[in-house]
Design brief:
The protein is built from 20 helices and eight strands. With about 475 residues, the protein is α+β, with helices and mostly antiparallel strands. The protein has a four-stranded antiparallel sheet with strand order 5-4-3-8. α15 runs antiparallel to α16. The termini are far apart.
Length: about 475
């Protein structure tokens, strides 16, 4: 079943948008740009991709020239940033992650500019690393054992923690410095995760726009690209993939009322990329909503079928909740559709089902059986055959001994019976048929010995007869 679902064209593709051909080895500077192009959804061999690579190779030629490589490492690292602003970067745009656009228009953000710096620093033989914070990306180079930050969004961003003069006139002097808070929560990441930030930023934008047809394959490409990364990096990229794949499931489940389609989608995700805690929680919610939707529509059979089809992927705890809910509704609807005797037999058989061990379900089965007994005795009650009705109530109470409703109707049966006996006794006594009246009240007390009215009737009649 999963294979068939996975092939459906109306789901986003779960295959990577591209497969990079340097899957295992350390990336070269050009590899970084090539991968950045693919993450920008600009194929390397497209006309635009070809132009970008040609422009990059000119930059790489410059940073690999003997005159450039003869510079001290710190000077070389700073000169790369200067070169980027001389030849490529012109305007900062907060959400401009696309590598192809950066080369074509000169617009950039922290990710695109950092990836460019990262690639050129690698080409120039520098020890460069990618740094990430929750809201920012930048680079570091290590020179003589000292790590130096590189804020690539500013042409004066080399070693930004150091206050430096960037403009001087006769009257004023301007400095550049980046507050340390800009780098709060920083973490050094591997090269594959760092380069994948291009795709991951674009995926985040696509996710916000519900553009899952492009977002999911690109997220899958990030996932495939970083499979050889260290555990922390791979885990973070998987979390991004789970966000977009999970949001598509949520849209199906909660916004389009297609809960079972959401389950089919997640089945396909699990088959291709494996499960995760985040997606499992979404799956459990969709499975519950799927059952509720079918039950609310009055289609218990569909709820049973859908749950049976997907229950192996539902967590054990949630599967038990859903199974109990569906079973309870099945029992309820079945019992109400059967004649009372058949319903009683059906309900007694259902007590053997594991789902009936749930206290609420067991209580509901008891209520339903009691209701069936009530349905059986009510015609007798309405006809005034109170003892026959009470006998059925007693029989029902053997199966559901604590049912308040059956106890109440039984009590009412005996009370009404006693009223009938009293009325018959009164009619006979008033007619002077005392012996018959005595027999009637004694027979009544044999059935309801504690009835105060009949006890009083007997006492008054015996007193009358003694005085006569």
């Amino acid at each position: 079943m999963v294979g068939a679902v996975f092939a459906q064209a109306d789901f986003p593709s779960l295959e990577p948008a591209f497969v990079f051909d340097a899957a295992e080895r350390t990336l070269s500077g050009e590899d970084v740009i090539r991968a950045g192009l693919e993450f920008s959804l600009c194929p390397q061999d497209s006309p635009q991709g070809t132009r970008v690579l040609a422009a990059y190779r000119e930059l790489e030629t410059a940073v690999c020239a003997d005159s450039f490589l003869s510079l001290a490492e710190a000077d070389r690292a700073e000169s790369i940033l200067t070169l980027m602003y001389e030849r490529v970067l012109t305007q900062y745009v907060a959400d401009q992650t696309n590598i192809a656009t950066m080369f074509a228009a000169g617009t950039y953000n922290c990710v695109s500019s950092s990836v460019l710096y990262f690639s050129l620093a690698k080409a120039a033989g520098l020890a460069v690393a990618g740094q990430e914070t929750p809201d920012h990306a930048f680079c570091t180079v290590t020179v003589d054992g000292k790590r130096i930050d590189v804020e690539t969004t500013n042409p004066d961003g080399f070693n930004p923690g150091v206050r430096k003069v960037v403009e001087q006139t006769a009257d004023t002097m301007r400095y550049f410095v980046v507050p340390k808070k800009y780098y709060a929560g920083r973490r050094e990441v591997g090269e594959r995760k760092f380069v994948s930030l291009v795709g991951r930023n674009l995926v985040a934008t696509m996710n916000e726009k519900n553009d899952f047809a492009r977002g999911v394959p690109l997220a899958a490409a990030c996932l495939a690209f970083t499979q050889s990364a260290d555990e922390a990096d791979a885990k973070a990229v998987r979390a991004d993939f789970d966000t977009v794949a999970g949001n598509y499931a949520v849209v199906l489940d909660q916004h389009r009322s297609q809960s079972e389609r959401a389950l089919e989608w997640l089945d396909a995700v699990f088959a291709r990329w494996g499960a995760s805690v985040a997606l499992q929680n979404i799956y459990d919610t969709a499975a519950y909503n799927c059952a509720v939707n079918y039950l609310n529509a009055g289609d218990v059979a569909q709820a049973q079928r859908a749950f049976a089809a997907h229950k192996t992927a539902v967590s054990e705890k949630n599967a038990a909740v859903i199974a109990t809910m569906v079973f309870a509704r099945y029992v309820e609807d079945s019992a109400r559709s059967l004649p009372a005797d058949d319903a009683i037999a059906f309900l007694r058989a259902q007590r053997n089902d594991p789902a009936a061990k749930d206290r609420a379900v067991a209580a509901r089965i008891n209520e339903l059986e009691a209701y069936c007994w009530y349905q059986k005795l009510k015609p007798l009650f309405d006809q005034g055959d109170y003892l026959a009705a009470a006998a059925l109530a007693d029989e029902g109470l053997k199966s559901v001994p604590d049912n308040r409703n059956l106890k109440t109707i039984r009590s009412q049966c005996y009370q009404n019976y006693a009223v009938d006996v009293h009325n018959a006794y009164a009619d006979l006594a008033n007619a002077g048929r005392y012996d018959e009246a005595l027999a009637v009240v004694q027979d009544g007390l044999a059935v309801v010995p504690a009835n105060a009215t009949l006890k009083n009737d007997l006492k008054r009649l015996q007193s009358f007869l003694q005085k006569r």
